[in-house]
Amino acid sequence: MLEHGKLEQLMCRTARKVVLSRLQQSWQGLNTEAPQLPELMYRSFLRQVSAEQQSSNIR
Question: pTM, whole model, 2 decimals?
Fold first, then answer.
């Protein structure tokens, strides 16, 4: 029987691997459908930031 701490570490490590692999798979799926998605997200983020800056400049 493993010690409780070691068991917890092992489970955390396994869970992290699973989550990472799932994320990579879904990201690859997204990339095949829309390779420009990160670019679009970045642009919308920039628009949001510049809009916030403009509204704070008006005050």
Answer: 0.35
